Amino acid sequence: MNLFQLDEQDNSRINSLLAHLTVQYESPCNPLFLQEARVLSSRLPEPLMSRLNAFRYHEDHNGLLMLRGFEVDDRQIGPTPNATGKEIDEQSAAREGFLLMLLASFLGDSLGWANQRNGALLNNVLPLKDHESEQLSTGSVADLSWHNEEAFHPFRADYLALMCLRNPDNIPTLVGSIQDVHIPVEIKEILFEPRFIFHTDKNFDQGETYVPVPEPVLFGDFKAPYVRLDPAFMSPAPGDEAADRALTYIIDAFDSALRKVPLTSGDILFMDNYRVVHGRKGFKPRFDGNDRWLKRVNITLDLRKSRAVRPGQRSHVIITD
Ligand SMILES: [Fe+2]
């Protein structure tokens, strides 16, 4: 694992910056803060930013970067919320949200979806009572099948960042990198062709009239491809048996390459959404205020490409209807 460990000096520098930002801006999704976040990120420790920059600049790694050692005060963040929604997602654990947004804004621009929690730019990942068996980040008992985030959508995030606020039962996040997957050339050639249908998940119900067109699974450099996969929400083009076999092959290959990463309090995991899939094993939720609680942000390198489907030039929220 590509790991950067924050030390005491780093934490002290981060703490004073966060103390200042929470007073000045109150919310990490305050538009005035979002406008300045990239500039303010230069006040974070330089070795940390240098490492994050290298993660973005090079692709000679597996697409994962873990920042470890950020100090989260378990009492100060309060109990794990028992609901989600734009306000609670963006306002809860605001100090921690500020750091996540600073780091995200250094890498690119945060991105929200109007269909997901009303466009919240920071999302809480935690178990909800009525979602226990759902294939959603708020599910629990059911395995959350691995996937690229919003694989079906052309404006999906380039990176995802997850910050762990608490995880007392060490529930692992599952990650799999295309770098660890070997695909024979003849199968790769099929996966590079537009022979696969991507369906939308429950958050993005596009109605019965929506007809997806076949698209490739792999793209970019044939020798070091990017990947888009969401096995629970995709299929080969109807009647295409070779595409069916190729899809089965790459799904099995990712299954074998999956690694368990149990995030602990203060961990911040960056994932390249073009090179890494992620998921979660099922777990038994507590619903006692101490459940696993992560914060998530979607990061795009090119906000402009979604301009036609954002309500304003400054908006970071994609409208999908
Ligand atoms: Fe996801």
3D architecture notes:
Pfam families: TauD. By secondary structure, this protein is α+β, with helices and mostly antiparallel strands. It contains 7 helices and 16 strands. Strands 1, 2, 3, 4, 6, 13, 15 and 16 form an 8-stranded mixed β-sheet that branches. It has a 4-stranded antiparallel β-sheet with strand order 5-14-7-12, with helices on one face. It has a two-stranded antiparallel ribbon with strand order 8-11. Fe (ii) ion is lined by residues 147, 149, 278.
What's the topology here?
Elements: E1 3-5, H1 8-25, H2 31-40, H3 46-57, E2 64-68, H4 86-91, H5 94-107, E3 109-113, E4 123-125, E5 144-147, E6 159-166, E7 172-177, H6 185-191, E8 196-198, E9 218-220, E10 225-227, E11 234-236, H7 241-257, E12 259-262, E13 268-272, E14 276-280, E15 293-300, E16 317-318
Helix pairs in contact: 1-5, 2-5, 6-7
The structure holds fe (ii) ion.
Residues 147, 149, 278 line the site of fe (ii) ion (FE2).
What descriptive keywords fit this protein?
321 residues, alpha+beta, Double-stranded beta-helix, 4-stranded antiparallel β-sheet, 26% helix, binds fe (ii) ion, metal-binding, Clavaminate_syn-like
Compact overview of the structure:
With 321 residues, the protein is an alpha+beta fold. The protein has 7 helices and 16 strands. The radius of gyration is 19 Å and the shape is globular.
Which H/E pattern describes the elements? EHHHEHHEEEEEHEEEEHEEEEE
Mind summarizing the main beta sheet?
8 strands, mixed
Total number of beta strands: 16
Which small-molecule ligands are present, each listed once? fe (ii) ion
Q: How does the overall form come out from the CA principal axes?
A: globular
- CATH architecture assignment name of the largest domain: 4-Layer Sandwich
> Per CATH, what is the topology of the largest domain?
Double-stranded beta-helix
Taken as a percent bin, the fraction of beta residues is: 15-25%
Rg: 19 Å
CATH class of the largest domain: Alpha Beta
Distance between the termini: 39 Å
Mean pLDDT: 95
Instruction: State the fourth-level CATH superfamily of the largest domain.
Output: Clavaminate synthase-like
Number of helices: 7
**In terms of per-residue confidence, which ranges show pLDDT below 50 for 5 or more consecutive residues?**
none
